[in-house]
Amino acid sequence: MPVISSASAATARRRLFLLVTLAAISLLYLLLSPSFPLPLIAFTTPPPHSPTTLRHLLFGIASSSKSLPRRLPYLRLWYHPSQINAIVFLDTPPPSFQPSPSDPPIAISSDSSRFPYTFPGGLRSATRVARIAKELVDRNLPDIHWIVLGDDDTVFFPQNLLSTLNKYDWTKWYYVGARSESVWQNSKHWFGMAFGGGGFAISYPLARALAKVLDSCLNRYGHLYGSDDRVYACLVELGIELSFEPGFHQVDLRGNLFGLLSAHPLTPLVSLHHVDAIDPIFPSMNRSEALKHLFEAVKVDSGRVLQQTVCYDQLKKHTISVSWGYAIQVFQGNQHLPDILSMQQTFTPWKRNRNPASSLYMFNTREPPKDACKRPAVFFLQSVSPEIGTIESNYSRSSPIDKNCSQSMSSLQQIRVSSQKLNTESLQGLRRHCCDVFLHSSAKIMDIKIRKCEDDELIAMTL
Hints:
This protein is α/β, with parallel strands linked by helices. It has two domains: 54-244, Spore Coat Polysaccharide Biosynthesis Protein SpsA, Chain A, CATH 3.90.550.50; 290-451. 25% of the residues lie in helices and 22% in strands. The strands form five sheets. The chain has an eight-stranded mixed sheet with strand order 11-12-13-17-18-19-21-20. α4 packs across α7 and α7 crosses α8 (227-237). Pfam families: DUF604. InterPro entries: DUF604.
């Protein structure tokens, strides 16, 4: 029988004591702990993504060999090859037309005849145009954050589009655009769909996912009307809904767009579609000249273009509505701000029919005064120039003076507006600006200074 020394026995007892002690401490910890947390792991923070610039946007413009020659003036307003990536997709090569090197590059869409199209009276080109989203991704261009889709009669305001998209994290799935202005048009399609003519943007990770499944969606949705319907249906199947931005404008309207442009929402102007279907936005100009004139203001302060500022001349009791870079209206008397912010219905519906919804809009409207003496004096942009620390814009009178009306502002001929460049880097918590009015002794010139409102300042007339 083996003999165990006293030293070995003591060592064994110490080991047993330590094991029992550790077991007791572990059991006590388990009994007293309310939960059993996993050990913390220190993850390495990834480097920040490069800020999105115009070069990170890739525009896909739907056109045709027939329409492109007459639509190029619109494209040339906003496209600059040194700043913007864009591709114009045609159905066939243009027969006898050579674009300028400064125009966007042209691509011929791939054959889409294999996909079904059964909408009565519609255009089969809708499937070709829908596939532009896929064809952009398939080019595998580097460092793209967003793809932007629009038509050749869509005028984009690129800096404002960039500011709008920078509200979103491009590394996540986003579908950004706007509905139609027409209740009837939305009801014919979907209220949750971005209308393609107004343009819409898809973050690049979502665009890659869309490109993988788009063709299968085209096979399922042959009964739909347009390309935007098809893209929307496929995005819905991917589980994505529209992020609505009111700066995109489908312009399902006809005629005089003054009411819309003079009461723009408190957000940057991103796009205007259907510019062939509206009157020239400035008097005594054709459509291209008028849009080019607007872009003179865009070049100086893109973010402030069409931003509405309302001033109250407390002394003379006039209400002045400034749509910066476009037009100014001077009303006699106190016009309540909510009324001024409603759009005058100077335009007509896109389509008139027996459906009552064809004359309904997605915003508040008001009828222009039938009494000529109650209509405002209108002043259109004449010139705009940056000065040291400020921007000066000048507006000249357009509306004729009715001699049968007693107007205290009948001698006013020019309005000069002083403002600072509007910072659109952050579009969160936007607030309308205030302004001060100064009338020269001759009563022929009015000066307006646009400024930020004080904390507790109201935009209203003191009664």
